[in-house]
Amino acid sequence: MKPKIISWNVRGLNDINKRLRIRNMLREWKADIVCLQETKLKMIDRRLVRSLWSRVHIDWAFLASNGASRGVIVMWDRRVVERTEDFMGRYTVACSFKCVSNKFLWAFAGVYGPNPDTDRRLLWEELAGIHSWWEVPLCIGGDFNVVRFPSEVFGCRRLRLAMEEFSECVFDLNLVDLPLAGGAATWSNNQSWSRLDNFLISQEWESHFPDVWQKHMPRIGLDHWPILLDCGGIRKRQRPFKFENMWLKVDGFVDRVKQWWVSY
Q1: Any idea what the Cα angle at residue 47 is, between residues 41 and 49, rounded to 5°?
Q2: Average pLDDT score over residue span 117-135
Q3: d(CA 10, CA 221)
Q4: Which residue from 53, 135, 147, 258 lies 20 to 30 Å from 13 (Cα-Cα)?
Q5: What are the phi and psi torsion angles at 113 (to 5°)?
Q6: Backbone φ and ψ of 20, nearest 5°
Q7: CA-CA distance, 62 to 71, in Å (whole number)?
Q8: Which residues 6+ apart lie within 8 Å of 194 measured at CB?
Q9: pLDDT digit string (tens) for 150-193?
Q10: Beta strand 4-9 pairing with 33-37
């Protein structure tokens, strides 16, 4: 079984017409697992889930919104994966899954990241906890509300502390940052753009699905592009290593590289 996973910041699910558009797109994309961020809903029931996804054998887990903001839902087809455990954090909905076809155990964490740097550090701690708790191959997807490199933000020329801390989380958890097919940006307001949405996978997860790749899907009037993680698609080319010269100007960067090198 090679699952297809959709991640999408939908900017609210209260509008019935928006839910209909989402339902039509999900039917077309034939995903097995769907993670929607910024639902802006305190409660999600079966009726609302059925209005989003037309499949019959659906289960779900959700993180309630905080007032009129945030909120995450993860939905899956029970004929493809079974939930064995779940965890609702402050910024994540995490599920331990078992594939129905081959009993492969793995975990998925759906993320909607906070904007303040201090809160974002709690997200990195949350992901580290999920990674260590289940000790199975891990896939993380969602809107992180931060990028790793200045080249992923329109007009940005400086490596910021938040970018460094995101990269530290990726390295510390031995995650793979997959290239994005179809364009560099996942969010745009038609004046600016950035790559806020992403899938990150553990090396064990990539070993099980060596042909995994992620790509843009069409936008439907929203400022975020849906992202598809396809685990059985076209074999990807070797990932290029991305190095930013400005890293050399960051205090402690060389020492950090030495630590990573020794750890391998």
Answers
A1: 60
A2: 95
A3: 10
A4: 147
A5: -80, 150
A6: -65, -40
A7: 7
A8: 147, 152, 153, 154, 185, 186, 187, 188
A9: 999 999 989 999 999 999 999 999 999 999 999 889 999 989 99
A10: parallel
Reading the block at residue 224, the tokens are 């975020």
User: Is pLDDT of 199 > 90?
Assistant: yes
Which residue type, as a one-letter code, is found at position 152? Answer: E
The tokens for 133 are 């708790």
φ, ψ (nearest 5 deg) of residue 207: -65, -35
- DSSP line for 235-249: PPPPPPP---GGGGG
Q: CB–CB of 217/227 below 8 Å?
A: yes
**111 DSSP β-pair partners:** 92, 142
Q: In this structure, how many other beta carbons lie within 10 angstroms of the beta carbon of residue 45?
A: 10
Read off the pLDDT of residues 220-241 as tens digits, 9 standing for 90 and up. Answer: 889 999 999 999 854 444 554 5
**pTM given for the model:** 0.88
Q: Do residues 41 and 64 lie in contact, with contact meaning Cβ atoms separated by under 8 Å? A: yes
Using alpha carbons, select from 135, 141, 202 the residue that is nearest to residue 172.
202
DSSP 29-71: HT-SEEEEE----S---HHHHHHH---SSEEEEEE--BTTB--
Structural domains in the chain, CATH included, are 4-263 (3.60.10.10)
For tokens 């078992």, what's the residue? 98
Q: N- to C-terminal Cα distance for the chain?
A: 31
How far apart CA 72 and CA 93 sit, in angstroms, is 7
| Burial readout 16-35 (b: 16 or more C-beta within 10 A, e: otherwise) | eebbeebeebbeeeebbbbb
Q: Under a CB-based contact definition with an 8 Å cutoff, are residues 5 and 76 in contact?
A: no
